[in-house]
Fold each of these.
Amino acid sequence: MKNLYSHFCWLMLTGTFLFSCNKNKELPMIYIDTPINELVKEALAGDTNAYFQLSNIYYDSPNESFLRTSLLMANKYSYHQAYIDVYYCLTDLPHKKKYTELDDLDVRTRELALVYLKDAVNAGNKEAMEILGHYLIEGKYVPKDVKYGNELLNIVSR
């Protein structure tokens, strides 16, 4: 009888677990309970944690509001992540139309994006180092410099 009871409990526990899991529900990367306007206010005061939360909110869909916040965090606080986020905002916003290259940007926007990419590299952002490293090796968007491009890629791979 005890063996039957343990099998029944195991079956109930397994069934409850399997049927209570919603496999189609996507969970957010980070639970954020602070209103976005409050996060923006805190980020503009130099709070990098608030900025990080905002960057997670806008990760898949940067917009003009996040671009303004990123510009201010980069220019006022020299925050390395904000530099690369400015680059992504400037390059990704037009790419929502399935563009894949910086060639599709107007010249001024591309030059501004590259300025912020280089600022991110100078601030030590490895993501930016990888992007710029490839551009330098290919000679695309920047003068070709294979040596410096490889140096950047070596830093990233360490």
Amino acid sequence: MLKYIIKRIAISVVILLGVSIIIYTMVRLMPNDYVDNKYASQLQSGAINQEDIDRFKALYGIGDNSFEGIVGGYLKWIGNLAKGDLGTSFKYEKPVEQVISENMWISFAIAIVATILQFVIAIPLGIGSATHQYSIRDYVVTVFTMIGISLPTYFFAAIVIKVLSVDLGLFPPNGLLSATANYEDSFAGSLEKFIDIVHHLFLPILVSVFLSIGGLMRYTRTNMLEVLNADYIRTARAKGLSEKTVIYKHAFRNTMIPLVTMLAGILPSLFGGMMITEQVFGIDGIGRLAYQALREGDIPFVMGYNMFLAILTVIGTLLSDIMYSVVDPRVKLGK
């Protein structure tokens, strides 16, 4: 197992290197860059001229968009990365790693809670839908999940805010803390602050879970139907085992084998989805900061954020492979 993990990590480093080249090239080829976005109004008003813009671009290291300029910029970036330096964010004027470390935890909390709820809700729904195929339950669950798959994040989030926040006043529409809150520096004050944060995060988590359970539910249903038609399931039933034992001890374990492949992409996809969710709900998490940085062409931060997602994907893929050996003992990872 250890040999396999070391081998996969070595391969992952090569993959991450290739990903970084693609991302850096795409960001440098964007129509506008940070300097163009920042000084557009001053250039239009005549306060500065094109020579000033070119000088600013050279100062930020983004002046030359030729092949040689992009290659040189990438080599400089990868050289700094090798020293543990992701550069300084143009927009936030702080080291990229500092901005990410300071703002990732709220996004991480939303993603983790949403992932757990996604599995807790979607897998039972998928199993129930498969064991009651073509029943009212099956149709209701299928329609419910299809709605979740089809709705865009910003549209569903706007509906949720309108109904649960504006009309019913049950939850705050945006932010992390109440504007008038003044918490004491004590255990009671910390607890009150925590409750306020949870209250604010209910709607973002609700949106993330509702829009993500559809795919997992359909995947569970499809695999469960395939397993339920297998010969060994008929044999288990012929032996007189209870339906509960047949489904949850025999069928469900084999259903989990293809399900673990989804682990590789769930967490990175939730972090990526936080871009829109945090923007709609006004949460200053890593997703919203990345969205704003992307709009303004903040190359160091965009590179750092995308590499962060790439590393999450690599870790998810490795965990998925390891889970194969847990779910199916026949799988050997030592080679």
Amino acid sequence: MLRNFTACGLLVLLTATGCDCQSKSLNAELSAERDRLQLAAEPPGAVSVLELRESLTGNSQDVVVVGRVGGSKPVFSAQHASFFLVDPAALPEHQHADGCGDNCPYCSKGADDNAVAMVHCVDAQGEAVPVGADRLFDLAEGQTAVIQGTAHVDESGNLIVLANGIYIRR
């Protein structure tokens, strides 16, 4: 009887340890992605979201774009390191309180679609990083970010930026 209890206890311990190892492995992978994507210095030559949209030709282009996190709700994806970036000129003059939400005329409407870019942080293979950008970079709505990557306008007219670097102004 004691032998069966010990075997069961060992199995539970190994299973729990295995889960912990998987969690640590995932955290290590995400930490490596954050280190790869987060830039130590702001890249030069950043243009605003509106300037970028005006300058894009039909093909994907290398870009550096600056804006504020936000412009559409929800701002962040929970499944991927994706978020909305809005042209700084499109933001209202007043400061938003935390969670001002649908009662705020700006928040309920959002920014003009031309002033918003969808940013997708991608890994070295071009795949979406599988964690929210808010968690990955400790990113919050309203912060200014400089994104380095490639951009194009999709068939629906959305400005898409595939980020291979991000600098967050603190």
